[in-house]
Design goal:
Number of helices: 4
Structural class: alpha/beta
Number of domains: 1
Number of strands: 7
CATH topology: Rossmann fold
Shape: globular
Order of helices and strands: EHHEHEEEHEE
Strand order of the largest sheet: 5-3-4-2-1-7-6
CATH class: Alpha Beta
Radius of gyration: 16 Å
Strand content: 25-35%
Distance between the termini: 23 Å
């Protein structure tokens, strides 16, 4: 089992290592990192570290959207909207990045927003579109976390992306609630 913290958090940021059934050896994400099966992701004790009022930001890809929505439910959250849509640019030029995709050439990746309880929105000025270049495989734009901090407000404890779980992060409010 992946080690989880003992305290509770008001914001949870996750980019699970989704398993993809499609894709041959040249397109397989396993070349970059170990993936997890849906049941293993569902069984992570995320609900145990969520405060009563908590925001969940969950990165998902369109081929796994149904699994991502089920993950939200199994973790004890309610889906609200797509918080962010990352429209990808190429690393070394301002042109659009085009992945291979399943049916169409893929570009965008989405970060879903879900809630537990009644968390407050600190800012109504946070935009959903992130227009940023790709970097290392599966690395998300740093701008995402800045927007989450602005949206959630009052966050100071940044326990984000440990080596044993680089895809899961936590943010706590200044109130010090446990």
């Amino acid at each position: 089992m992946i080690p989880f913290p003992k305290k509770k958090y008001s914001v949870i940021y996750a980019d699970p290592p989704w398993n993809y059934a499609a894709g041959g050896k040249t397109r397989n994400v396993e070349r970059h990192y170990r993936t997890m099966k849906p049941e293993d992701i569902y069984s992570l004790p995320v609900q145990d570290i969520a405060e009563d009022d908590c925001l969940l930001f969950l990165w998902a890809t369109f081929p796994n959207l149904d699994v991502a929505l089920e993950t939200i439910r199994r973790w004890g959250f309610q889906y609200k909207t797509a918080a962010f849509v990352w429209v990808k640019r190429n690393r070394k030029s301002p042109s659009w990045f085009w992945g291979l995709g399943n049916w169409t050439r893929a570009n965008a990746e989405i970060c879903l927003l879900a809630t537990k309880g009644k968390p407050k929105r600190a800012s109504a000025s946070v935009h959903s579109i992130i227009d940023a270049p790709i970097s290392r495989h599966s690395e998300k734009p740093a701008e995402t976390r800045d927007r989450i901090v602005q949206l959630a407000g009052g966050i100071n404890d940044r326990t984000i992306c440990k080596k044993d779980r680089p895809w899961l992060g936590f943010l706590g409010r200044r109130s010090g609630r446990r």
